[in-house]
């Protein structure tokens, strides 16, 4: 029997401002494991661990083959056996049709170390629970036309690992293979634009907990994904184009590989493809805008303790840190420490993003510091502004978050509407399916020194691009409300629906609930713009008032044209008529 060894240090440091503390954990501690094996594709995953002196761990691959038989209707028990070793962090349930998996999207192993093409995201817990849990068919059905993942399904997950972490297509949103361009850490993962950690390669390291006889993941079509061998230790034979085959013992199943496609190369079973991803799947949550890649950055450390996290990275000769703490209510406090030890602190509130989180969208090569497409208010934190690394303004397409896109928000300044509660369904009269009226708004608690107000209504489309429907500024400081269909108050900007001045109501062509955000800004002075109303976009206004914002308040509403939310009849059109270039 041959034995292979992987050697790595079991040390991690945690840096918070001027203090530093070290801590480490043993492999196999599924509750809190900060020393997972390096994601080395040339080495078989470990199944036995031998501790040695001086903080060095040797991982020995020496597992005897096991005989495997598959009982009838084995799918539920097979699913349970794969996910159960990661309980209680991973929770499961069934309803007779689907197997549901709940997790916070944070693996027990360490994360992020080794990434050299970084988009400035950091791992944050995700709300993969309740109605937002992952679901796997209990009775997979072979597809009439099996679908390859090559250059398809580039958004969202294609599989779910046994530790509750989603697995995305090996290709990123641009079609590049993430593992080949420095985007993945030592465990085959990284963070999407919603700070959602996920894999882009098979998590073979999970066999250190599971053994070889259990799947390491399940594709979202319901079929299991095993490691590099069959459960009995033999090499798989006659694999199809999707890295799968059928055996008498297991039925149809996929196998991981050390090269593309790494996981299932397609879907042998039935799935629904919608907007470039398997549908439905959970929505990732984030509170920050997505930024451009940070050129020359290399992540060298990541550590955590309780609800505190520290990511260490290098740019040239400088060492920098992103230290962050999870607060009550889903908020996150960030300390961005630059190479000179200067600290910038920001706090972000949660905001739900689109399905499946997401990676860098099409168009930006790794490591480029230029504008990134697809930002929004649910992506990663901005880095500290070091030596001229200012955030570029977003263009008309919503490419890069404009300054002021994550404004100061104390909580003392509040926004409400007499027509809809925060988080509630937008009444149809305020949409393109109804009278296209503007929503009545009321705000209180403006800070002292407020000289004017501004209002923006916006939304993130499935690609993470900002769409805006209402831009209104230079509202006098003595105004504390806007009536329904308000006129003659403040100065109008344009909308992204038709590019014209004025309000454009939500009127989505895509089924399903959409979330819209109304933000009121308290400003220290008037906004001075020498532009026509049709030229003042959301980005133009944000850039113009970035140094004037004293406080801000937000109201979130939803709308669903299918009739489930907001629209009682789900009519495809209404008094508002069709809209040009409708936002999703």
Percentage of residues in DSSP E strands: 25-35%
- Number of helices, where a helix is a run of at least 4 consecutive DSSP H or I residues: 3
Largest sheet: 6 strands, mixed
Quaternary structure type:
single chain
Q: From the alpha-carbon coordinates, what is the Rg to the nearest angstrom?
A: 25 Å
Helix proportion range: under 10%
Tell me, what's the shape? globular
Structural class: mainly beta
Number of domains: 3
Q: How many DSSP E strands? A: 35
Mean pLDDT: 77
Stretches where pLDDT is under 50 for at least 5 consecutive residues are 1-72, 352-404, 563-584
> CA-to-CA gap between the ends?
58 Å
Arrangement of strands in the largest sheet: 11-10-14-15-17-16
Description:
The chain folds into three domains: about 5-60, no CATH class; about 65-390, no CATH class; about 415-560, Phosphatidylethanolamine-binding Protein, CATH 3.90.280.10. It is built from three helices and 35 strands. The protein has about 575 residues and is mainly beta.
What is this structure, in a nutshell?
The chain is mainly β and about 575 residues long.
